[in-house]
Amino acid sequence: xxxxxxxxxxxxxxxxxxxxxxxxxxxxxxxxxxxxxxxxxxxxxxxxxxxxxxxxxxxxxxxxxxxxxxxxxxxxxxxxxxxxxxxxxxxxxxxxxxxxxxxxxxxxxxxxxxxxxxxxxxxxxxxxxxxxxxxxxxxxxxxxxxxxxxxxxxxxxxxxxxxxxxxxxxxxxxxxxxxxxxxxxxxxxxxxxxxxxxxxxxxxxxxxxxxxxxxxxxxxxxxxxxxxxxxxxxxxxxxxxxxxxxxxxxxxxxxxxxxxxxxxxxxxxxxxxxxxxxxxxxxxxxxxxxxxxxxxxxxxxxxxxxxxxxxxxxxxxxxxxxxxxxxxxxxxxxxxxxxxxxxxxxxxxxxxxxxxxxxxxxxxxxxxx
Amino acid sequence: xxxxxxxxxxxxxxxxxxxxxxxxxxxxxxxxxxxxxxxxxxxxxxxxxxxxxxxxxxxxxxxxxxxxxxxxxxxxxxxxxxxxxxxxxxxxxxxxxxxxxxxxxxxxxxxxxxxxxxxxxxxxxxxxxxxxxxxxxxxxxxxxxxxxxxxxxxxxxxxxxxxxxxxxxxxxxxxxxxxxxxxxxxxxxxxxxxxxxxxxxxxxxxxxxxxxxxxxxxxxxxxxxxxxxxxxxxxxxxxxxxxxxxxxxxxxxxxxxxxxxxxxxxxxxxxxxxxxxxxxxxxxxxxxxxxxxxxxxxxxxxxxxxxxxxxxxxxxxxxxxxxxxxxxxxxxxxxxxxxxxxxxxxxxxxxxxxxxxxxxxxxxxxxxxxxxxxxxxxxxxxxxxxxxxxxxxxxxxxxxxxxxxxxxxxxxxxxxxxxxxxxxxxxxxxxxxxxxxxxxxxxxxxxxxxxxxxxxxxxxxxxxxxxxxx
Lengths: 369, 470
What we know:
Chain A has helices at about 10-15, 70-80, 95-105, 145-150, 185-195, 225-235, 245-255, 275-285, 310-320, 340-350; strands at about 5, 20-25, 40-45, 50-55, 60-65, 80-85, 120-125, 130-135, 160-165, 170, 175-180, 205, 215-220, 240, 265-270, 290-295, 300-305, 320-325, 335. Chain A is an alpha+beta fold.
């Protein structure tokens, strides 16, 4: 079906109140989460709901419409020496702020904190067409239910976000990256455990299945080389700092997930260090490309588009793991693997979307995840 | 008699002597740290296992008896105030740290664990639990996560909900559900974060997986004196504006300093305002940042400055700061603690206005606050024995909260809404926002049994969903 267009909040409300299933889309980069054009669920294109509403650099917060491109926000923050510390994946030119929050996953440089730690306010249209607000515009706020954080990862299935407030952090003046030639996954995991607990705080801590570890630090330009050297020497075998040009290119590529092939889907799977070995054995058996990030708190998996996502879902469920499929052709249920949230999830979804307007949030269709 | 039946059934769950029903026993549970409110519950169930929590909640659900979970009763918003016709579920005996995973930097704990005990269990691994409410030596994790507690070190580390990765919860009908997991990443809506800060309305957490942080290599604490609160506030703005993220930035006014000195003698330098700035991290980085901070403090007109890395001196500085609320008891027979938030760039404006409002009414206001994130804690001093004093103090408190909202802030930064600020929710949220929250609450707990009377104003009995939504 053709997409509906909404360029203002009233149009979003009208579209929702029409009572037929729909899902918000914007930048068109997280395609697996979109409705199938041949299916009964219509896409509600909210990319027209764009623009920064409010930004006071001294406040370290901003408010923007959900369809605002991340590139625009990145540029705005960079011009004031700030950035989004959770480093949302940039899967294409169009990637938007709302999409980053809806996916709810961090990029490789998001070790220090996740998406949910930076979303402080949200305006959204619920399944009854109500415009509601949760949170606020200040960095500290304990009033009311934490709807902004609930929206992180909601994939548009609990409401159409129209405006978001986020807090930001100063952007480090300089960065450096150290690569450790660790051999084998167990050694790599041990290296990561030591580095994550070490005296030099890292912003990224990546691990490849062969055991190689890549760590990034940020901070004052005058100290960055000394600190990189200290980081490099902090474990055995010692690491080697990358040349500055190579280091920025490495992370630019990493946040675009350029290593995921054009015929593969990017699947994000939360993990924990002690669960990685067992998971990796299964992924290896299937011959899958994969990387571990955020100090082994996440597995990034490239799943062949030609194979049914249900197979990966079963593999993950057997490991008591869950995942979200972000790219590739639309899937009726991009959340795969073990379900989480149970009755709590079903009840909240039923309150926010009683008629099941947002595909996937109706209890029968996976709202329990 | 129905109450007798209820007690018999509760005892039959195996509570025995742990079901408290005597007047003297119940009196201790009538209030929390917000002593202005008192309500005797029907009974108190002192549970000893997660299974008992679920069993008691199931029974409450079956008999439509409201219940209130309670840890150490340190809520400043009346968050654990009992319901008269309901029971209190006391969680203090669920006080085990179940595991610490140093490689993943996580800990799994029961809800009755004292906040500081988590850091104590993590310390041998070079780790700590970051959220540090001033009551951290007595308050429990269950209460921290129900009210999304903060603390002085939130500036860098965030609040409780930023440190909860997974939960096992008993929903208000007794169903047990797992939320989140053991990873810092999650997929799907963040149910864990939604449960955190629900003020007990969604049920009772019986197990929590917490994020730990490495103990920093170096910590430096600076004390700076300014001749006015406004100048101290400007210094905070300058530090934030310079791209520095101290782990804490606190301001105390002369009245708060006087109270702290009378109580624990931290030996603060005296002046119109005291600013505490704490930096942590790598040795060389902290040295460099400290030099930058000192320069900014001087530029902002700092009259006197002292810095220390000594753990004992630092402990005393924080003891003075964290005892400030109770210390005010030395200055005044009664006081109200407020917890408003303003955008940090409007701190100076907010403080001027609070001073004006207090002076107008002839009421003394002590100010001690988390300046770095704009979280104010005006302490409104009064003598409850004077006719009308409570009312005047409450009026001033209401005006201060209205001011915070007007400036673009919040009615609560870290104490929660509780019973105390329920009526002020409408200053921040529209009728539609509140109706949606009530719908969510009713979907999770149709009988409104879990911590009834907190955060949300109950709708009139006749109100239907559609009426509430209109």
